[in-house]
Write a structure and sequence with these properties.
three-stranded antiparallel β-sheet; 6 helices; 24% strand; globular; seven-stranded mixed β-sheet
Amino acid sequence: YRTGLAEEFAEAIAATGVTTILITGDFSSTSTEREFTEAAAFLTRLRDRGLHIIAIPGNHDVYTFAAARGQRWTRHFGNYLPEESLPCRASLPGGTPMVFAPTVCPNWISSRGRITDDDAAKTARLALDAPAGPVIVAGHYPLLHQTATYASSATRRLRNAEALRNALGETGRTILYVAGHVHRFSYTRDPYWPSLTHLTAPALFLQRRGAAHAGAFLEIHAFDAHFSVFEHWREEKWERHERAAHEGKPKGGV
């Protein structure tokens, strides 16, 4: 993790001209105070550049029951939560609605997430009742277990993902579901729900062994009826590339 590049990364993000930063979790690896303190300092760098930050926790942020009981993530980042509890809805400065789904929980031995039928229905209702136009729905875990760029094992998936996926698809709203967790870029149209598209973000500071990229992030533009997605990555310098969504391939039933 190239955290020594934090100042440069903050400058690169601010240079895009965006006004709002969405972070879908994993501020830490093992939910320690030191990790959270370093992550909070990076968010301060972004905030000091005039950026509005919205954040939700990832599974690594509540990895242990002790961290969850002590509310370590909330103590460091609670001011960046859209509301005290999820699901909830907020709006970007331009009016695009954003809905936030609760998907993380501590586990003894796995990295699995969880969403209840009730929370899936509430999340979908918030999207359905949002103002006209496209909607961003954000959760830490992706709803697709496999795309062209990642495959999640059974111990790393969101339990009851199909309930949320189907509930969102049934709204008929143009929805971009944004997630983290897999730490790989993926942009996929849902194979069953034509109005639903899935986007996962690469890890900001992660440089994989043998990879030229030292960090990456996504830039999202919302229009009246669609989204545009740009991927930024750093090699010798930062590069920006517009991405098109892949067509999802049906796998099993819904």
